[in-house]
Amino acid sequence: MDQVGSGFSDFLQFLFMGLQRGSIYALVGMGYNIIYNSTGVINFAQGEFVVFGGLMMVTLTMTANLSIPLAFLLTVLFVTLIGVLMERFTIKPVKNPNVLRLIIITIAVSILLKGMAMCFWGKGSHYMRHFTGSDPIEVFGATLLPQTLWIIGILAVVVIGFVLFFNHTMIGKSMRACAINRDAARLAGINDRNMVMLSFALSAGIGAIAGIIITPIIQMDYTRGALLGLKGFGAAVVGGLGNSFGAVAAGMLFGIMEAMAAGYISSHYMDAVALLILLIVLFIRPSGLFGSADAARLREF
Amino acid sequence: MERRDYIGIGVLLAMVIAVPFLVDNPYYLGVLVFTALNCLTCIGLSLLMGYAGQISLGHAAFIALGAYSSALLTTLAGWSPWAAMGAGAVISAVVAVIVGVPSLRLKGHYLAMATLGFSAIVHIVAIAAVDITGGPQGIGGIPYLSFGDLVLDTDIRFYYFSWAVVIIGLILALNLIHSRMGRGLRAIHGSEDAACAAGVHTALYKIQIFIISAVYASISGSLYASYATYIDPGPFDVMHSVLLVTMVAVGGMHRLWGAVIGAVLLSLLPEILSSFSGYFQMIGLDYSQDYDILIYGGILLAIMLFLPEGLFSGGRSLFRYLYQKFSPAEEEG
């Protein structure tokens, strides 16, 4: 930290960093919730969707030289397809799904995806250009990257799209119906298998978006999935499992706490902060900060 | 224990004694020592996965706790390796209570994520607390275990010792599952609500099993430290925890013997694969350890999709199925 910076500008700087990281955890947490709501399973491959999103975007923009919007769209489609394939080939064929088995299956898929990412993109970390230049903007003595604005903006767009989709479209309402009571939804003529597939598709797509927007800042490599996934899961649990707004709020909280810890305590232990919050919340209030205790007691995953 | 278990232990014992007469290469003996250490951890993990129906993605962290306790207490405080091993086990048990109580009190699989988070914290601390753990450079000069004047400083001595520990651990675990607690656990597996109603203290049993499995892992870690005499954070990452889960799942998580078989098969697999590396080159592939991750992932996925009972039970029922299918004369009902 430069000595000239006042206490406030330092704080602001950490806050920007926190918002930027928090947005990613928020998106990953939302991804967990979508699949959790439709299947009751925690998808351990969620972090891998983020990695694939980031790395595919690197390939399309830096190697294939596509424009950012086009590459963005293609990458999201590509990862969405991975999500669909994952559901069709590994989740759907399981005849009598027991949650432990499904969880181990998602662990297996995450290892496979990680291995594939290593084979395709190598072990190095990949640089990607910022969406609109990397000249920082000065705000009260702190510097703000344009990419940070993109990240926060895209999170906002995703959240708004999410609300519109689940509240104002037939498919979104059907998905919610399945999450509430699968048998009743089936009786009402909803094809629940397709809803499960759709939830994997949506979740993978949101993971891909998270990967795409963060890659210019953190430089993606194939090992990042586990920790990003874990912190995103932390956000989902702290926000109350299944509650997507809770996940967004908790994700932001994680990001900010982490950035403050890195700034004021030590950057070595930065990664441990979010995990520690997760363990403490599990200990004290397992229903999450924003979930109701009754709902949590009924949940099994 | 059942009669089959006595036979199994007899066979295992005979194999353990016989193998050094066939293999005298110290490298392969070393591989077999690591196999034994994996076996020990997997027996504990199998109790947790197969009998308590819970999954831990943090067993590598308990191995690390055992290993670092042994390393630090012997090199810095001058403790005997045995006392350090005991201290490591106690520390692991206490940590297991702290991590396990909140997540096992809840229904479902919060334990998986809690242990994953805990495991990541341990790994971060092992790397970042350079003053204590030596950081990425690790700790060297850890003393060997010894019985009086008999120092376990050769591969063959440690080989026999580590497998003796595995067999003792296996006998204890087999006894446990045929005890009151084991029956209670099997009842939980059938129906948690019914077991609860019949007076089985489900949460308590699950936590006890989690503690026991953490202690198994911790002892395995202490043994690793005193065998290798040097440790660094490398082997204790999340990937190793996943590998342990894979071993248990591949062998069959509802049988302790499955864990032993899975641990042996998957510990030896990299050696088998690298001995076939010539054939890989013939089909245009350059085998390297890097591909292990794909192979393990593929095996785990295939087993969970097609043989969820694991190789041990799955193989048996496959055999029965084929037997019935191709010998219609003996078909009954």
Strand content of chain A: under 5%
SSE order of chain A: HHHHEEHHHHHHHH
Report on the biggest sheet of chain B. Answer: 2 strands, antiparallel
Q: How would a textbook summarize the main sheet of chain A?
A: 2 strands, antiparallel
Low-confidence stretches of chain A: 296-301
Biggest sheet of chain A: strands side by side, in what order?
Answer: 1-2
Number of domains of chain B: 1
Structural class of chain A: mainly alpha
| Terminal Cα span of chain B | 32 Å
Distance between the termini of chain A: 44 Å
Could you state the oligomeric state of the chains shown?
Answer: heterodimer
What is Rg of chain A? 19 Å
How many domains is the backbone of chain A divided into?
Answer: 1
* Class of secondary structure makeup of chain B: mainly alpha
Low-confidence stretches of chain B: none
> What is the global morphology of chain B?
globular
Describe the structure.
- The complex is a heterodimer of chains A (301) and B (333).
- Chain A is mainly alpha-helical.
- Chain A has helices at 7-39, 46-63, 68-91, 99-121, 146-168, 170-180, 182-187, 192-218, 225-238, 244-264, 270-284, 293-298; strands at residues 137-139, 142-144.
- Chain A contains twelve helices and two strands; from the N terminus they run ααααββαααααααα.
- A two-stranded antiparallel sheet of chain A has the order 1-2.
- In chain A, a hairpin with a 2-residue loop joins strand 1 (137-139) and strand 2 (142-144).
- In chain A, helix 1 (7-39) packs parallel to helix 5.
- Chain A is globular.
- Chain B has 333 residues and is mainly alpha-helical.
- Chain B has one domain (3-236).
- Chain B has 15 helices and two strands.
- Chain B has helices at residues 3-22, 26-51, 59-75, 81-105, 110-128, 130-133, 155-177, 180-190, 192-197, 202-228, 238-251, 256-275, 277-282, 292-306, 310-326; strands at 146-147, 150-151.
- A two-stranded antiparallel sheet of chain B has the order 1-2.
- In chain B, a hairpin with a 2-residue loop joins strand 1 (146-147) and strand 2.
- Chain B is globular, with a radius of gyration of 21 Å.
- Chain B starts with a helix and ends in a 7-residue tail after the last helix.
- The model of chain B has no long low-confidence stretch (mean pLDDT 85).
- The A-B interface holds A 42, 90, 93-94, 99-101, 103-105, 107-112, 114-116, 118-119, 226-227, 230, 233-234, 237, 266, 268-269, 271-272, 275-276, 278-279, 282-284, 286, 296-297, 299-301 and B 49, 53, 55, 57, 99, 101-103, 105-110, 112-114, 116-118, 120-121, 124-125, 127-128, 238, 242, 245-246, 249, 290-291, 293-294, 296-298, 300-301, 304-305, 308.
